[in-house]
């Protein structure tokens, strides 16, 4: 995989650059928060592939561990949207028993992390702008007890991978030729699925059967 394309909406970038607050992401809406990343093998000839097959369920991965295969309404919508868009790109859907040129995997990825925040350090010692002399204590400094809190973040992403089954080699390795990743707010909202899939393919102009 030699080329990576990262797309983030112009509004989101302007929101990040133009904000002077500690929480600039509070100023962007859900659509602007999403990031669409695609990565592909620049040596692959996408026009050489003609057929594809796609998984019938979605892998659910928690902290790098496969926990289940699922087919929720959201999962079914993703699979249907990928099928439709692959057809628009000129590929023919076949059963996996019919030796497809490409195999499509779909995964929901979740990562949970825990951290610690020091409240005085985060907000700054604004009380220090008043000289202790004001209170009748010249030469004194300020001290403040340390307060710490913990937080936990659970981040999710949708991953779609295209695998080269046509040229699977004698070394018994299947090469990935394309990857699409969606991150941000509303990633797992079913109504957003068509936009996710179209955004990934729209920025992958090379991914089509007829070029």
Automatic annotation (TrEMBL):
<feature type="domain" description="DUF4136">
    <location>
        <begin position="38"/>
        <end position="204"/>
    </location>
</feature>
<protein>
    <submittedName>
        <fullName>DUF4136 domain-containing protein</fullName>
    </submittedName>
</protein>
<dbReference type="InterPro" id="IPR025411">
    <property type="entry name" value="DUF4136"/>
</dbReference>
<dbReference type="Pfam" id="PF13590">
    <property type="entry name" value="DUF4136"/>
</dbReference>
């Amino acid at each position: 995989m030699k080329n990576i394309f990262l797309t983030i909406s112009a509004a989101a970038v302007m929101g990040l650059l133009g904000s002077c607050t500690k929480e600039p992401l509070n100023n962007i809406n859900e659509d602007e928060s999403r990031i669409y990343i695609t990565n592909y093998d620049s040596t692959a000839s996408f026009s050489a592939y003609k057929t594809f097959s796609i998984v019938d369920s979605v892998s659910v991965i928690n902290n790098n561990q496969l926990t289940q295969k699922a087919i929720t309404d959201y999962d079914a919508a993703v699979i249907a949207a990928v099928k439709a868009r692959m057809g628009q790109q000129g590929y023919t859907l076949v059963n996996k028993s019919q030796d497809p040129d490409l195999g499509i995997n779909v995964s929901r990825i979740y990562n949970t992390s825990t951290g610690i925040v020091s409240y005085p350090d985060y907000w700054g010692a604004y009380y220090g702008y008043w000289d202790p002399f004001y209170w009748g204590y010249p030469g004194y400094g300020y001290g403040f007890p340390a307060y710490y809190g913990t937080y936990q973040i659970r981040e999710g992403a949708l991953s779609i991978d295209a695998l080269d089954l046509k040229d699977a080699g004698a070394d018994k390795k299947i090469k990935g030729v394309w990857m699409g990743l969606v991150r941000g707010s509303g990633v797992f909202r079913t109504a957003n699925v068509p936009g996710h899939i179209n955004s990934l393919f729209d920025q992958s102009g090379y991914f089509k059967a007829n070029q």
